[in-house]
Structure formats: structure tokens, C-alpha cells
Design brief:
The chain has helices at about 50-60, 80-90, 105-110, 130-140, 155-165, 165-170, 190-200, 215-220, 260-275, 280-295, 320-325, 335-340, and strands at about 20, 35-40, 70-75, 95-100, 115-120, 145-150, 180-185, 205-210, 255-260, 305-310. The chain is α/β, with parallel strands linked by helices. The chain has 2 domains: about 10-45 and about 165-330, Rossmann fold; about 45-150, Rossmann fold. The strands form 2 sheets. It has a 6-stranded mixed beta sheet with strand order 1-2-10-7-8-9, sandwiched between helices. Helix 9 crosses helix 10. The chain is globular and about 55 Å long. Bound molecules: 4'-deoxy-4'-aminopyridoxal-5'-phosphate. It comes from Confluentibacter flavum.
Length: about 350
């Protein structure tokens, strides 16, 4: 670590080494101890800082990237922000092909971080030349010296967490961890962290969190792609309608499904009871813990680590907006009254 007395050479020196924070109230009914790995303490406010920095530095080591080159990815979310941040410090051009479904807030945030953003139509198939997948692929072919991060199909995504998140958790828990609970989107976080942890202690239980409407849990159980599992859902960042190669299905013991509504309420509860302002998928992961707790799946000496992937500020117009919650039908009339603002 390059810092001296909390003075850093640049923002990238702060990537990783996130705290483990005890969950005190939300889990008080359950046996065991519960700790959240709070990834919003990364400088880009999410776990994706780890993969952006790692994948880019690997490409540098292999001589694939040199200053002035271009880094391409297809996301308006956390990964886009992290790549933009790393690109600024290291002197790369960052090109992001995003869907027209992305909010203007998100697009403005990426542009603020110096990214060139291509907004591509949302309602075309992945094979359509206008889709963000195809636009990214084409840009990668056209721009000499460009690197396509392709996080869903890049095994360096797993390595990033194998080399950082896993060892950090092992050290922070002094080897006492018994369960890891993590949402699975690309699957990089859960797969890489689990690989390291299981090498230390193969008895650690690895539990993935999936959304209703995603194909991942069923694929884990059957190794068959069941299109009937797929339908729209609201949680962003977990679950998928395809099978990412950045997920190591063999290392995950089981998946738990959570609903949009319960995950949203649980995220709000984390803020209100633990004082931790975290994102939608943190609510989803905590919701999975609650479900397992209700099923009496934890014992007295269990040491459960839950990954909280990002910060709540990215969801102000969604789960932290009372208006949005009401529009989704997530508030009953009593709740709606209790959240009214008093005008003077
Ligand atoms: N939560 C959020 C908010 C995310 O953006 C992602 C990444 N898609 C995840 C969880 C899941 O992490 P991973 O991609 O490593 O499975």
C-alpha cells in the first residue's frame, strides 16, 4: 500500500481494503454473527472498482494497453463508473456503449468522469447491429489498441476477487467465516471470493442471491437454460437472462431467490436500523439472509459475511424515492401516510 498517514498518491490507492461492519439489529432474532463487507467504501462507491483496476492493470502487464489507448465496456452502471475513474488516472480513453433505458443522471455521471457514452436503442435484440453489445464489439474492432472489458465473459473478473475480496474477508474474520452470501450478476464477486475462501476452508458455505425473473438459480440446479424462468424484474445488478462465463457454478453451494419488493424494503430497513446507506442489491443480499434466518439455517457459532456491493446514492430515484415505491405498489396505504412530508 502506497499511502503514508492517510495521504495517497491518487484515488486508485484507495481501491479495496473495505471494512467489515457488524449487522446488529436486523439479525438479532437469528443465531450466529453477521457482518457486511461494505463495498461502497471503495472510491467509486462499489465493488466494481476492484475489477476495473485489476483488469486494466493486467492488460498493462501483458503489454496490451499503453497510455492513450481506449477501454470499452457495455454498462451504464457501477462498472462503467469504475472504468471511467481508472481511465482518468491512467490516461486512457473510456468508451461506454449503454442502453437508452439508462437514466440521464447515470449518463451525465459517466460523462462527468470523462467517458464517451454511446446511447444505443434498448428494445433491439443482442444481435442487432444497433444493440450496445454489437456497438461495443464494432468499436473494439475499429479502434486500434482498444481493450474490451466484457465483464460477463472475462475470467479476470473472477481473479480480481480471488486476489482481493477473498483474502481480505479471510483476514478480517481471522478465518472464522462459515457462510458467504453474495448477489450474482456477472458472478465474478461470488466466484472469485469463494474460490479463495474454499481453498482456506472447504466447509465454508457459499450462497448466491438471485432474482425472480432470472435464469441463474435454475441453471445452477439443472445446468439447463430454461427460458421460461426469464421475465422482467426491477433489481439492477443481479441475476441474468444469459449464463455468464464469469460465474463458476461448481463453487456455489446454493442460490436463494428474492423479490423486488422485499429487497427494496430491506434496503430501506438497513439504512433505518444500521445507519448504512447501501444499494438495491445490498437489500437483496440481506433479504436472502432474513429468509435463511427464518428457516433457522444459522447456528450459534456461525459467522456470516454478506457482500453489500454499492452505495445507496445511486438509487435515489428508485428504492429511496417514496413516489417510485408507491408506483411499484410497494407501499400500502398506511406506509404511504407515514412518509408524507410536512409543509410549513
Ligand atoms: N450489485 C450491483 C449493484 C452490481 O452492479 C453488481 C454487478 N452487476 C452486482 C451486485 C453483482 O456482482 P457480480 O457482477 O460480481 O456478480
Amino acid at each position: 500500500m502506497k499511502h503514508r498517514n492517510q495521504v495517497f498518491d491518487n484515488v486508485l490507492d484507495l481501491v479495496g481494503k473495505t471494512p467489515l461492519i457488524r449487522i446488529n439489529k436486523l439479525t438479532s432474532k437469528f443465531k450466529g454473527s453477521f457482518y457486511a463487507k461494505v463495498e461502497s467504501f471503495n472510491p467509486g462507491h462499489s465493488s466494481k472498482d476492484r475489477i476495473a483496476l485489476y483488469i486494466i492493470e493486467e492488460a498493462e502487464k501483458q503489454g496490451i494497453l499503453s497510455p492513450g489507448d481506449t477501454i470499452i465496456e457495455t454498462t451504464s452502471g457501477n462498472t462503467g463508473f469504475s472504468i471511467a475513474m481508472v481511465s482518468i488516472i491512467k490516461g486512457y480513453d473510456c468508451v461506454l456503449a449503454v442502453s437508452s433505458k439508462s437514466s440521464t443522471d447515470k449518463i451525465d455521471m459517466l460523462k462527468t468522469m470523462g467517458a464517451k457514452v454511446y446511447v444505443c436503442p434498448a428494445h433491439v435484440s443482442a444481435n442487432d447491429p444497433r444493440s450496445y453489445y454489437q456497438v461495443a464489439k464494432r468499436l473494439h474492432e475499429e479502434i486500434k489498441g482498444s481493450v474490451y472489458i466484457n465483464q460477463y465473459f472475462n475470467e479476470l473478473n473472477i481473479d480480481a476477487h480471488y486476489k482481493s475480496t477473498g483474502p481480505e474477508i479471510w483476514k478480517q474474520t481471522e478465518g472464522k467465516i462459515t457462510h458467504l452470501i453474495a448477489c450474482s450478476g456477472t458472478g465474478g464477486t461470488i466466484s472469485g471470493t469463494a474460490k479463495y475462501l474454499k481453498e482456506q476452508n472447504p466447509n465454508i458455505k457459499i450462497i448466491g442471491v438471485d432474482a425472480y425473473g432470472s435464469v441463474i438459480k435454475k441453471y445452477h440446479e439443472t445446468r439447463e437454460f430454461d427460458e421460461e424462468e426469464i421475465y422482467p424484474y426491477r433489481i439492477e445488478g443481479l441475476g441474468k437472462n444469459l449464463i455468464p462465463t464469469a460465474t463458476d457454478f461448481d463453487i456455489i453451494d446454493e442460490f436463494v431467490k428474492v423479490t423486488d419488493e422485499e429487497s427494496a424494503h430491506t434496503a430501506r430497513e438497513i439504512a433505518k436500523t444500521e445507519g448504512l446507506f447501501v444499494g438495491y442489491t445490498s437489500g437483496a443480499a440481506m433479504q436472502a439472509v432474513k429468509q435463511l434466518g427464518e428457516e433457522k439455517r444459522f447456528k450459534k457459532d456461525d459467522y456470516v459475511v454478506i457482500i453489500f456491493p454499492d452505495h445507496g446514492s445511486r438509487y435515489m430515484s428508485k428504492i429511496y424515492s417514496d413516489k417510485w415505491m408507491s408506483e411499484q405498489g410497494f407501499f400500502d396505504s398506511i406506509n404511504a401516510e407515514s412518509v408524507q412530508t410536512i409543509q410549513y
